[in-house]
Structures are given as structure tokens and as C-alpha cells.
Amino acid sequence: MDTVTRRRFLELSGVLTTGTFAAACSGSHGHSADAAHPHSSVTTMTPGGPTTSAAQLGAAAQHAPLNPGQGVLVLVTLYGGNDGLNTVIPYADAAYHDARPDLAFTDKEVLDLGDGLGFNPAMTGLHAMWQRKLCAVVRGVGYPKPNHSHFVSMDIWQTASPTEPAGSGWLGRWLDAQPDDQTRALKAISVGGTLPPLLGGTRTAGSSLPISQFRLPKPGPLESGFVALGRSSAQDSPMAAYAARDVSDLFTVAKTCTPALESAKNAAGGTKTGGNGKAGKSAALAQQLDIVAECINASVPTRVYSVSLGGFDTHSAEKQTQAQLWAEVDKAVVDFQNAITAGPHGKDVVTVLYTEFGRRVKANANEGTDHGTAGPVLVLGEPVNGGFYGEQPSLTDLDNGDLKFTTDFRSVYATLLDKVLGADPARILGADQPRIAFL
User: Fold this and answer.
1) What is the DSSP string of 134-187?
2) Closest CA to 18 of 241, 308, 222, 309
3) I need a surface site. Which of 31, 75, 130, 249 has the fewest CB within 10 A?
4) Residue 225: helix, strand or coil by DSSP?
């Protein structure tokens, strides 16, 4: 296949958008970005990023398995802006009850953490992890000059660049620094049909692993044609060469993950309760984390996994909605932790739960809360030093009704890069950041 024809095919199939950023409209749910903000022209990865499959992950686990002791980072993105004040609840603060009398939880309802704080009543499993010192709560996490737009704020979190737009994600830049070998496409995987900006680098990108399994063509002319698309050519432009490598990566990853996907699919299907009496895992986050657990236990050489759950934009009926969401998160995360604990890498996995912003302190008129700023980040796992980190934001010393952040999110990232991935944070984040002792 000549270069022109191949390039045209790749353009039509969307492969050439892999690893590149496309302008996206800012704002969501009727909220627009601040036109003066440097991130007003936000960037987002296109849905059709490099794709992998279970077969590829299985092959990689056999030929280049994850070494014991290598850290694994699992990022759980809670899209919509989770209300941190009804997650890690300052139940002993009168200002909390005054600001949201119908949304506030009492001391008898919360799962006590000490220091006048408690988990949402739906977070029973995470509370048990807290009691076992496997859960850290980093308080007041945010960034300077916060933005209330979903897209802008998430762009800032995923690129780790609060002051100016960045053409790559923070973990994409980590990927750029990895050896350019056959496993690089597998080093970071997003479980689902899209590749988030955080995994997009300037020279490479992570891979997406669709839950509805991608199947390669059967051996024959069609497969041969696709394989040919992945062969490099001296006539290729840099972008065409990049796209060709993505096709090659797709075959590499597609031959590695099939066992994990098939196993997770079997676990999710069938009756609502399995032989162990547990509820069937039909929820979106549970399915994603089931696949991650299968991959980790199979020693797939992936160092970073990205999963997500939406629905946290609780402008109305927040108390019930958020409780349902956290019940789903709680079960999925705790089941995931239990699944990997007895495996070969259980002591190496760190799971992080974060969102693009918290909510305002004062409730609105619809029994909900509007877009705010700082909030807690939860860090979980065997390597974690459980407890509180960072200062609890004041509920009375506010910035136009919003919490003032007390912990820069880049310090969280610097700690993860250093302690989990063994990377130099300054190279990834542009400047060194203070470490936090949760690891």
C-alpha cells in the first residue's frame, strides 16, 4: 500500500488523530469557561485513540511481564465535580451545618475519621480501609486561580498546567520518557472507549482498552492489509509514521488483553449474584476495575491505568444522588483492592480518586450545590501511609463563596511520579514540587 493511500485510509479511519489534541468547546451543563483564562481553548483527546485488546496484553504478560516491586498507579476520575464537603464531612463545624442545613450530615450519620471529620455514610468499605491505614485523605487539593468550567478545570488537572495550555497530559509526558520499545504502548492504558488527555504525550500516547472487546480481523487478506498499515516507510511524514506505529501498537495490545476482558465479561454476566454471594458487577466502574485487576494479576507490563465514573455534577437532589454514586465507587474500589491483594503485585498498587473541582460551601435552592474549587483526593492501597495530609480548608474564610485550596495538586502528582513510577517529577511537571508523606 503506497504512502498516500495509507495516509488517506488512516485519516478516514481516525487513526491520525491519535495522540493529537483537538480544540473542544468549553463549558458544560450551561456553564461556560472564563474567556480570559489561559485554558479557554481547552484541549481534549479524540475518542479514537490507539486501541488495545486483551490478546495483546496477554502476550505482553508472557514476553515482558511486570516485575515484582514495580509500582502501578490506578487513577479513578470522578467526572462532574464531586462535592468534597459531603465526602469528607466536617460534621463538627457549625459553619458546615449553617451553609447547607438540608444537605448536612450529623455526627451520628457519618463514618468517623477523627479530627471532626467523617466519610459519607455510603463509604463503608473505604472507611474500613481507613481503619486499616490503607487510605490517605489529602485535604484542600486544588490550584491557583481556579476555574468553574468542567472542561477547563479537568484540562488543568489532566495536563498539570494551571497557568497555560499544554499540548500533552502529565502522564503522557511520563510516557514520552519511556524506552521506545514494543511495550511502550502498554505502559499506560485507559479502560473504556476514549483516551483521556492525561495519557497523551508529544511523541506517543497511552492506549484505550474498550470494554466491548475490540476484535482483530481473522488471518487472511484483511489482516495482512492491516498489518501492512503498521509497517514503517521511509517516505512517511512524521505524523504518518506516528499513525503507522499506532496501528502496530493496536495489534500488539490487541493480542495481550483478551484473557482479562473475557474473564471480566464472564464475571459481569450471568446471574446477579455469583457463587460467592457477591452482587453481579454490572456497574460501569466495577467492570473497568475488574479488567484492571485481571491485568495486574496477570503481570501485564502496564504501569498506569485510567478508569472513570461520571454523574457527580449534583446541582439538585445531591444527598441521594451522591450517596448512590459513592456506594458504587466504594464497592468497586474495595472489590478491586481485594482482588489484587493476594496477587503478585498487590503490595505495589496505588489507587487515586480525584475530580475536577469540589462544590461551593453553601447549598443552592434545589437541594444541591454548584461548581466550587478545592476538595479531597483519596489515595488507597498497601503502599499507602493512611491518615490525613494537608490542611482542612476553612468554611468561613472563603474566596467569593469558594474554599481556598491548601494543597497544590501538583504535589500529589510529584509524589506519585516519584514514589510509584520512579520518575523525576521536575521533568514531567516543569518544576519540582513538595512531596506528601502518604507514600
Assistant:
1) -EEEEEEEE-SS----HHHHHHHHHHT-SSS--SS-HHHHHHHTS--STTGGGS
2) 241
3) 31
4) helix
All cell numbers assigned to 3: 504512502
| Upper half-sphere CA count for residue 419 (Cβ side, 13 Å) | 20
In this prediction the pTM is: 0.79
Burial class of 155 by CB neighbour count within 10 A (0 to 12, 13 to 18, 19+): buried
Side-chain-side CA neighbours of 89 within 13 Å: the count stands at: 27
pLDDT in tens, 60-87: 777 788 999 999 999 999 999 999 999 9
Cell numbers 485510567 correspond to 306
Q: How far apart are CA 44 and CA 347, in angstroms?
A: 33
Which three-class secondary structure state does DSSP give residue 411? helix
**Least confident segment among 48-52, 122-126, 182-186, 419-423:** 48-52
Residue of 185, 186, 182, 190 whose CA lies nearest to 210: 190
Query: What are the pLDDT digits (tens) for 114-155?
Result: 999 999 999 999 999 999 999 999 999 999 999 999 999 999
The cell for 321 is 444522588
Q: Where are the beta strands (DSSP E) in 246-326?
A: 304-309
Strand duo 304-309 + 188-191: pairing: parallel
Q: Quick check: 18 and 48 in contact, CB under 8 A? A: yes
- The kind and range of the H/E element at 286 are helix 284-297
Amino acid at 199: L
| Percentages of the chain per state (helix, strand, coil), in multiples of 5 | 35, 15, 45
